[in-house]
Specification:
Strand content: 15-25%
Helix content: 25-40%
Bound molecules: guanine
Structural class: alpha/beta
Number of domains: 2
Shape: globular
CATH topology of the largest domain: Rossmann fold
Number of strands: 11
CATH superfamily of the largest domain: NAD(P)-binding Rossmann-like Domain
Radius of gyration: 19 Å
Order of helices and strands: EHEHEHEHHHEHEHEEEEHEH
Number of helices: 10
Oligomer: single chain
Largest sheet: 6 strands, parallel
Strand order of the largest sheet: 1-11-8-7-5-6
């Protein structure tokens, strides 16, 4: 079994970005500038956004964190986005999800200038991605492709089963794995809450990508020997033995599934750090495209 080490791979990618930024500075060019908008004080979102800002510092990007209270009106958030769209110093920005219930997520994502949409969530970018056009690929799917590519996991002609049809992971992943090119050319089955006999399908999978948010959902008796496992889940499960009071669990019962897997991502240290590295990569691309 080979561990798909997202921590190491993301560090490699961040170091490559750092080299590119240093070269930009030496040429007297402006360095990439990423902004993140955080509405409210969701614990996990605070952690993620904090990691994104620290990663910017590491690679030499400028970063701006816009923190807005839970009570922010939709109109106010749309105005903030308009300001970021118009601010020429900002190359790319993200609005951290989830948003408070009173705000229409779709309306917010539609308001982001597609050329600055480094999350790749705007329909223009999603449509371009699906049509093999130059776009911003959402960071988590982009990170998964990079892991598969850098570990030379064969995907061509393989049966990939994606569990979960979210707009951020499952749906784009199902499209990307079937596309021509590196980490593509796979035969994809996209499964979800209405899928019948899920185990029968997962047992036929060469590659399984699980993005459900249900801790330890995928068990050893649901997979075949030699399967490749990509675990996108990051759930906080109460655990009194931990100082912070919770443990981080993926969607895969790692101990038992890893015994049958040929490649597997750990949680933490798998897909999570890759997401941040690819957000930086998209921001670098945005800077280069804007130059
Ligand atoms: N919430 C969970 N994942 C993501 C992500 O990749 N981007 C944003 N903006 N919010 C998220």
């Amino acid at each position: 079994m080979v561990l798909l080490d997202g921590k190491k791979t993301s560090n490699d990618i961040k170091d490559e970005i750092k080299v590119a930024v240093t070269a930009m500075k030496e040429r007297g060019e402006k360095v990439p500038h990423l902004a993140a908008v955080l509405v409210g004080s969701d614990g996990a979102s605070l952690t993620y956004v904090g990691s994104k800002v620290r990663a910017c510092e590491y690679v030499g990007f400028d970063s701006t964190l816009v923190e807005l209270p839970d009570t922010t009106a939709e109109e106010e958030l749309l105005n903030t986005i308009k300001g970021l769209n118009e601010n020429e110093d900002i190359d790319g920005f993200i609005v951290q999800l989830p948003l408070p219930k009173h705000i229409d997520e779709q309306k917010v994502l539609m308001a982001v200038n597609p050329n600055k949409d480094v999350d790749g969530f705007h329909p223009e970018n999603f449509g371009k991605m699906a049509l093999d056009m130059e776009s911003f690929i959402p960071a988590t799917p982009f990170g998964i492709l990079q892991l598969l590519e850098r570990y030379q996991v064969e995907t061509k002609g393989k049966h990939t089963v994606v569990i979960g049809r979210s707009h951020i992971v499952g749906r784009p992943m199902s499209i990307l794995m079937s596309q021509k090119g590196p980490a593509g050319n796979s035969t994809v089955t996209l499964t979800h809450s209405h899928t019948k006999n899920l185990s029968e399908i997962t047992k036929q999978a060469d590659i399984i990508i699980v993005a459900l948010g249900v801790p330890e959902f995928l068990k050893a008796d649901m997979v075949k020997e030699g399967v490749v496992i990509i675990d996108v889940g990051i759930s906080r499960v109460p655990d009194a033995s931990k100082k912070r009071g919770y443990a981080i669990k993926g969607d895969v019962a790692f101990a038992e599934v890893s015994e049958k897997a040929s490649f597997i991502t750990p949680v933490p240290g798998g897909v999570g750090p890759m997401t941040i590295a690819m957000l930086l990569k998209n921001t670098l691309l945005a800077r280069e495209r804007n130059a």
